[in-house]
Hints:
Blueprint: E1 14-22, H1 27-37, H2 51-57, E2 60-65, E3 70-76, H3 85-92, E4 104-111, H4 114-117, H5 126-134, E5 144-148, H6 157-170, E6 174-176, H7 189-207, E7 212-214, H8 221-233, E8 239-242, H9 243-246, H10 248-256, E9 263-266, H11 270-274, E10 280-281, H12 283-293, E11 297-299, H13 312-323, E12 334-337, H14 346-353, E13 358-360, H15 363-366, H16 372-387, H17 392-395, H18 400-409
Parallel strand pairs: 4-10, 5-6, 5-13, 6-7, 8-9, 9-11, 11-12, 12-13
Antiparallel strand pairs: 1-3, 1-4, 2-3
The chain binds 3-phosphoglyceric acid (3PG).
3-phosphoglyceric acid binds near residues 179, 340 and 364.
Amino acid sequence: MYLARDDEIDPKTNIIAEYKVKGTETFERMAKETAAESSVGTWTTVDYLDDDIMSSLAARAFALDEKNHMMKVAYPIKLFEKGNIPQFMSLVLGNILGMSVVDSMRVVDVHFPEAYLNEFKGPAFGIHGIHKYLGIPKDDPRAILGTIIKPKLGLNPQQHAEAAYRAWKGGIDYVKDDEPQTDQEFCRFEPRVLETLNKVDKIETETGRKVLYSPNITATLPEMEKRARFVQESGGNMLMIDVLTVGFAATEYIRDLDLGLPIHGHRALHAAMTRHPDQGVMMIVLGKLLRMIGVDSLHTGGLHGKMHDDELSTAIKIYKAMQKEPWGNLKPTLPVASGGLHPGSIPKIVNDVGMSVLINAGGGLHGHPDGSVAGGKAMKQALDAAKAKIPLDVYAKDHPELAKAIELWGF
Ligand code: 3PG
């Protein structure tokens, strides 16, 4: 009961979750209780639980690896409502993480049968839709360069729009609001959107290049819908949501409005769930779920910046999971490197995860000694150098903006 051999598990009819489990009980008991509590069982025997229920709905732990504290649990697909991520989370990431029979538990990865995956819409645009909008060729992709307006908070709508304009002028593709920027008194949402979209028009007219701006619509759900519709009616081309603070259901609701605007997902809050090495859930799991509900671009760790990541080889796996094709019928989500990045980070990031990535620098662009235009230029020059496989210090010899950036921040 609740345990199985590896060859008894069919990945076509089961969702398989990988758990890291530590505790003083026997590993087998912890495995059984995990499978029971997260499917049909509870702490004692209950008469209603008959053989039919057991054989069709019980989760079963397998691949027990006590030395490495790892186990897998197979969940029959029948346990799940189609297309319902909150229900999935209540089972696979639910009560079991708080059971006292274990000292700690971390959900390390999860694998879905195609039949379950394909109940989700996934991103409306994803990597290729965003590339197409920006005119980036499918057969020769390059990293998309972005910025976050800094100072973090405090600029008024005109100042915000001007900072965005200068960054675009430098040559970058994308501007996003910061994750705590919503509709504060010093920078109301609607005037900020209108002012910044005016600058989108201006830069596109001046340069002939397409650029993206994602205003942060994070709020209560009715307010988010109102803000999303406002962006659409104002001619906007992207939305941003703090996808974990508003939650999966709210994010999916906005995606399902099908407003024709890609959704940029900021992952603020993730570290409350992902950072502890033994407890919680790994970012790759949250990333897969956010791709399933339709987030087009998602913060997936800075790799070489100011934020904590798991070791590099593990952090890279999150990017690969977002870029993976095919993955059911779901379009790939554009992974986003952000947090403490600057021009010197760019070659390392594209070397690690390839060109299908969005690289954001806030302080590492607006903090350039010569301002945001020069900061944007330095970012673009660093990408050009990386694409041509020329070391940054060599390329910087006749690119003064890059030279100043790497002198200040290194590479
Ligand atoms: C983000 O949205 O990832 C952060 O605001 C990044 O800001 P920074 O580039 O200044 O660290």
